[in-house]
From TrEMBL:
Chain segments annotated as transmembrane: 398-417
Keywords: Membrane, Transmembrane, Transmembrane helix
Domain Peptidase M14: 43-348
GO MF term (any one): metallocarboxypeptidase activity
Record flagged with keyword Methyltransferase: no
Active site, UniProt feature: E307 (proton donor/acceptor)
Protein name, as recorded: Peptidase M14 domain-containing protein
Name of the coding gene: ORF32791
Any one of the GO BP annotations: proteolysis
Pfam families: Peptidase_M14
Family named by the database record: Belongs to the peptidase M14 family.
Native species: Arion vulgaris
Cofactor: Zn(2+)
Amino acid sequence: MNSDIKYLQVIFLGTVIVLFFQENVGLDQVGAQKEIYEPDYSVYHNLTSIVSDLTEIINKYRNFIIASHEFKSKNGHTQFLIRLSNFTRERTKVKILLAYGEHAREFFPIESMFYFLKNLTKGLDKPFEGRPSNTFSSWVVNNFDLYIIAITNPDGRSYIERTKNYCWRGTGAGIDLNRNFDWNYGGIGSSKYRGDEEYRGPKAFSEPETLVFRRLAASVSFDAFLSFHSGIRHIYIPFSDTKSKQQHRLPKNNDDMFKLAKQMSNSSTLRPFKYGLVYQMIDYTADGTSIDYMAGVAEVPFSLAIEMWEHEHHTGRSCFDEFNPKSEHLQDEVALVHPLYVELLSYLFTWKKKKLMTVSSLLRVKKDDRTLNQSDHHDVLYSSHPSSEVMYSASFESLVVCIFFSLVAVVCVVLGARQICQLMRKKRIISLKSLSSTFSLYKSL
Ligand SMILES: *[C@@H]1O[C@H](CO)[C@@H](O)[C@H](O)[C@H]1NC(C)=O
Ligand SMILES: *[C@@H]1O[C@H](CO)[C@@H](O)[C@H](O)[C@H]1NC(C)=O
Ligand SMILES: *[C@@H]1O[C@H](CO)[C@@H](O)[C@H](O)[C@H]1NC(C)=O
Ligand SMILES: [Zn+2]
């Protein structure tokens, strides 16, 4: 009798302890699984070869690449911020930020980046003997300013190599960087429990790995931001957060984003990618994501997450093969997704051209060109010229302001009324200043 009660007490206590730990530690993280397939590091990159291959490319193509090791992970690995363009060509280019390797177990996107980078740089090998060796490469560097965060989460990769836990998604400290951004940070579409897969970290932007995103967003007016992932074949348009889902919020540039997503979706020779608003495509929400931040806070006109690859019939819980193709298929698979980039660039090229053909662009182009000088590359990578960036960001307001003043300018010229012109010039300076202080809000982030 007595021992029966003790027995029950133990069970009761045990249950309480288990519940307590579930509540406070969280048991959601997918632990290491029995992998039915592991990467062959003579085909897939590992952290060491990511560093050596990138270093080789950067050194070989110094005329077209500026690289920075300023941004580092918590454990001190460089994230490799690189910028690829024809810096001697002074013209307004399409500015795109491409980010790879946010989630540790998704190896595939980084492989796709290497394919893309090698494709571009190979075409620059002997640019001129009458004409460029590859017109695609030359078209890209002359018309685009590509910023690439090559490996957002190197600590996570290092963790996987050390532990062979191919299910690991977070940083070395187990934080899901894609819940750590300051857009509805902390919502139910993320976890506050260390140990959960979607652990968001102690506060928005608590992790050093997100600094590069903030700094770039504050100093460069990107036309587009893309975050690359794998595990499914989807093209995601913001928003993904819980509030936006409740409010049916659409991003500012929704229509154009759908057009771009559609064009990229159809680039596949296999079958189209599915695309749409994140909160309509998936049955959970995600709070504090990079694409929401870029669309909602930084107001980048195009902000997308590209889920590049999926296993067609995945069963069981092995992870490497759920997120990545087998080593022997890797080369074919990266070639198959390459057209995504071609469509991305071709759409944005046309979009930007149209945008520049507005009256306001006549005022803006000249100033913007100045930011593209290689001599001040440190300036361009990390800070910028606020006034030109503000003009360039061309919100609807500034468009209206610019159209108004260009009309006034025409009237001034026609009437030759110098006094009126001088008066207006003063006003314009004031209005630009006020715009620039609006913008500087972001700079203090
Ligand atoms: C990384 O990959 C290279 C081949 O590219 C290989 O020689 C090296 O041993 C690998 N390192 C680790 C730690 O697996
Ligand atoms: C880069 O720009 C310069 C200046 O416009 C031009 O002469 C050169 O051909 C361009 N390089 C390539 C690879 O197109
Ligand atoms: C790079 O890719 C483009 C677009 O698919 C292609 O036209 C070009 O020939 C490729 N360049 C090289 C050097 O393979
Ligand atoms: Zn991912």
